[in-house]
Amino acid sequence: MKKTKKRGMERSKKAVAVFFDLDKTLVRFNSAVRLGRYLLFRGKLPLSFVLTSSFYGTLYSMKLCDFSKMLRKLWKTMENRNADDILKLTKQLYSDPGKFIYPEMKKVLDAHKKKGHKIIIITQTFDFVAEIFAKWLKADALASSEIEIKKGRFTGHVNPCSAKKKDVYVREFQKKYGLDLKSSFAYSDNIRDLPMLKDVGHAAVVNPKKELRDFALRKHWEIDLVE
Would you place residue 13 in the very low, low, confident or very high pLDDT band (cuts 50, 70, 90)? Predict the structure, then answer.
């Protein structure tokens, strides 16, 4: 792992947390997208889901649609559909979550854990996916996009964990654990996560694209290049 800047992990009298994005920060890829492909090839997704995903996914990538709207449109197509098969196949796909984690980032996470820092994952990914990785990583807390299921069926209702919502969750965790945010850390690969990264005293970006890399350089943030 190459770093553009070395940085110590200062001690704090208050609790210190490490906020991690999940996809492309800890996990090598977008875990929700990979799950979608896995389910599609097994005939578990309706055509409306596929078309909605393609349309709104394109708009989102072009910054013409926000994440919350995209997610609500997407899961509305799953209203009243059986959730059991989806959950079973999700566990099947991610039965060995460790093999999908960047080894270098696992070492970073473990180093923080040894120092007594609280490990908190805040991700846009679906809760039933994120929970698998959070459990394997032994995270102290998790915030993710909540997909509502009642009586074994998707209701079509969601509580998106958008980039803006991540900032809200950071503040909620601060109150819950009595965190010293100036002494805390955050890691992400995504420019949309700037609100979360700006919340802490020690921000780091992982395999950033040009826009985020340039911003990180201006702020003298740590840049981690992992494979």
Answer: confident
